[in-house]
Amino acid sequence: MAMMNNIVELNYPITFRSNDAQRIGENLKNRNSIVLIGMKRVGISNFLRFFLYHNEIVPKYIGDNKSHLFIPIDLNDLVERETYSFWRLTLKRIVDATAKTSISGLIKKRIESFFLSSIQSRDLFTTIDCVRDALVLLVNNNILPTLFFIRFDRMKNAINQEFFHNLQGLKDATHQNLAYVFTSSRSLGNIAPEVFTKASLAFFCQDIYIKPTDRKDSKIIFKTYSANYRLSMDPAIEEAFFDIVDGYVQYLHLALIFLHEAKLPVKTRVELFDGLLNDERIYLQSEELWESLILEEKNVLLCVSKGKDVSRDSRMIARYLWDTGFIIEKNNKRTLFSPLFGLFLKQQELKENKEGIDFTKKEHLLFTYLSENKNNICEREKIVEAVWPEMEEMGVSDWAIDRLVARVRGKLRLQKSNQAIQTIRTRGYKLIML
Description:
Radius of gyration: 23 Å
CATH superfamily of the largest domain: P-loop containing nucleotide triphosphate hydrolases
Strand order of the largest sheet: 2-3-4-1-5
Number of domains: 3
Number of strands: 10
Helix content: 40-55%
Distance between the termini: 50 Å
Shape: globular
Oligomer: single chain
CATH topology of the largest domain: Rossmann fold
Mean pLDDT: 92
Low-confidence stretches: none
CATH class of the largest domain: Alpha Beta
Structural class: alpha/beta
Number of helices: 22
């Protein structure tokens, strides 16, 4: 119950992102599997916490009077991104989900015994069998399980034909009563095209694109999260706030943190915009979005930011930008999803090796932490605590950590330092002497 009290999304009204919730609910009612696709940090996890835990979701958006069990599996919890760890985590989350329900104690004990068998065997095939047995047991007791694989693209390098066959095999074993919800920044066919072919995906799942929120839903998020920071904002500044972040949830969170940290209240639209534009965390998030795109998509974005035409062929190649809401078309006019990102693109064009060799604030925090723990492994979780304490609750992406490390490495070389950062696979980093 304590964990549920920490889920702020439980305070959202049931109408939050109603169109997206309706589409997901219809698919789950029909036991169809889906992939929720969106630009990185657009707010899919925020939306899913609402969908997974709000007690009105099933009657409102599924409404079939059946017993549904949502099983969230956040793949950020994986230390090693390999197949055995994936299935072991899946089985553990099935145990966790059933333990929190009113399912009979006998079923819970059976599922717990499957997990113990898996741990004792340390065998991949036994673990998959135990996952299958647990899901079949639920279905045989009139419970419809849905596995939510959150941040599924983290498994990109481990996906092969056997992995896909196992996913399909679980649906077959449950007589198609099992449904999957994957979340990813790209489609499954893009993650592993040699495995998830168009022909195989046609019968396996369908894509649903999650775009930045509209103004109504942005205000719901703002109202809920701003209460934590006890912010009081002039109505004109509040409207400017929404114009600037424009539905992108990570910008919204970071902007709230910026306002919370500000020593003096922001009084003008220009002051707010300049402050957010120069915030290192927001710049890093914009950079992550930029680096998630392929070359053709980047070129199209630059064209749109300059007001240039985009050819039909280019639009087809860069269709992802429209599907995910990077580019918005309204009244025959193309705009970018946020003016913050638009200004970032202009900075990219002017950048060209103008970075200095001095550490930025976040780079300095990282280097200081590594120095204080010289020759010791610094775990990723501890790095987040030291460098991003203000963001620990919402999480920091692997990309952001790796990118910051890469920047510090580069500046150490430019400074001709006798120190270097060593990568410790699956764990973190270590500062060493050369």
